[in-house]
Amino acid sequence: MLIKKAEVITTSPDRNFVTLKLTTDSGITGLGDGTLNGRELAVVAYLNEHIVPLLIDRDPQNIEDTWQFLYRSAYWRRGPVTMAAIAAVDVALWDIKAKQAGLPLYQLLGGASRTGLLAYGHASGKDNEELFDSIREHQADGFRAIRVQSGVPGLRSIYGVPAKPTTDAGDGREHHYEPAQRALRPPEEDWDTRSYLRHLPTVFEAVRNEFGPEVPLLHDGHHRMTPIQAAKLGKALEPYDLFWLEDCTPAENQEALRLVRQHTTTPLAIGEIFNTVWDYQLLIKEQLIDYVRSAITHTGGVTQLKKILEYAGQYQIRSGIHGPTDISPVGFAAGLHLGMAIHNFGIQEYMPHGAKTNATFRQSMTFTDGYLHPGDNPGLGVELDVDEAGKYPYQTAYLPYNRLADGTVHDW
Ligand code: CS2
Ligand code: MG
C-alpha cells in the first residue's frame, strides 16, 4: 500500500481548522488534525512545502518509522508548528491502519480499558449567579464534572468567561466561548493577579455551598501566576477539594512547580502547550504534576502522546487530554481512542463544537450521561465533508493577550 495523495484542507465553519487528508492506492483515506490556534497557516505551509512531497509513494503502514523520519530528518526538532505537522501525519496514518484492519483505533491501541470516558464541561459566569446557571445547564446536559471559570471584579474580560456566547451547537442553544477572535490583531485584555487571588476562593466556596461536596470541580489558572502566587491559590482552594488546578504557572521552567508542590496538595494539571516528552521530563519524574494535559494534535500525534502517558503512568500520573474547540473533531476523536485504551486515564476535556463544524466533520463519537465514547466505526470514526468545508474559507483570527495596569504584557 502506498500514499498517492496528500491534501492540506483549511476550513472555518465556526473557527479555523487545518486537516491533512491522505489517500492510498487502495482508496483508504486517513485524516489528521494540524490546527494550531492563531498560527494555523504556519502549519499549512510546513505541511505543504516540506512534508507532503515526502509522503507521496510512502508506505503508510510504517507509522513509527515515519514519525522518527519526520522528527529526526527535520534536524530542527520540537516546537508547536513542527509537532502539529507531525501529529497531522501520525493521526492520518493511524486512521488508515485502523480502517485497513476494519477496527476502531482504540482496538489497535490495546482495546478498551473502560466503557466510557468521564468528561468535564466548561461552566463560567461573570458573577456567581451567571456561573450557577451555567453549572446547572452543564449538569442538565449530562456533565458530571465541571470546570469553573469566573469573572473577577474590576477586570473587563478574562479567560474562560465569554463577553457573549459565540458558538451555536445546533441545539438551539448558544454554547461557550471561542478564545480566538476573528480579527486582524490580537485583542488586548486586562489582568490583575492579586484581585483574582482574593476573589477566586470565594467563588469556589459559593459553588461548594450551592452544589455540594461531590461534584468534581476543575479550574484553569491559564499560566497567569508566579510560582508563589500559584502556591498561595492552591492552598486557599484546598478546602474546596478541586479535581485539579490547571496551568497554575508558566512551566517552561519545570523546577518552578517544586515551590508550588511544597505548599499545596491541590492536584496539578499541566501540558496543553507542551510539544514533546522533554517538556514533561522533570515534572513527571519528580511527581510535580498529577495530570498530563497534552492534546494529540500538539504533541506529535498518537505515537508520542501514548509514550508520554506510559511514562507518566509509572508515576501514577493520569491523563487529562486537552479538548477545547480549537482541537478539531479529528484531533478530538484521536484523543478519545487513546483515552479508551490507556490504563492511567484521568478525565477528558469536552467543549462541544458548533453546528457548522459538526456538519463539516461527521463524527461517530457519543456523549452519554457524562461519558464520551469514540464509537466503533473503523478508524477514527470521523469523515470530512470536503464540499461543506469548501463553504468556509480560512479567516484570520488571533488569541487575546494581556496587559497589566502599568501596561506590562502578561501571560494570557
Ligand atoms: C484552555 C484552552 O481548554 C483549556 O484548557 O486552556 O481553551 C486554550 O485557551 C485554547 O486551547 C487556546 O487555543
Ligand atoms: Mg487550559
TrEMBL record:
SUPFAM superfamilies: Enolase C-terminal domain-like (SSF51604), Enolase N-terminal domain-like (SSF54826). SMART domains: MR_MLE (SM00922). GO terms for molecular function: magnesium ion binding; mannonate dehydratase activity. InterPro entries: D-mannonate_dehydratase-like, DgoD-like, Enolase-like_C_sf, Enolase-like_N, Enolase_C-like, Mandel_Rmase/mucon_lact_enz_CS, Mandelate_racemase_C, Mandelate_racemase_N_dom. Transmembrane segments: none annotated. It comes from the Bacteria. Residues 170-185 have a biased composition (Basic and acidic residues). One of its GO terms (biological process) is carbohydrate catabolic process. Residues 128-267 form the Mandelate racemase/muconate lactonizing enzyme C-terminal domain. Residues 159-185 are annotated as: Disordered. PANTHER family: D-GALACTONATE DEHYDRATASE-RELATED, STARVATION-SENSING PROTEIN RSPA. This is D-mannonate dehydratase. It comes from Microlunatus soli. The lineage of its organism: Bacteria, Bacillati, Actinomycetota, Actinomycetes, Propionibacteriales.
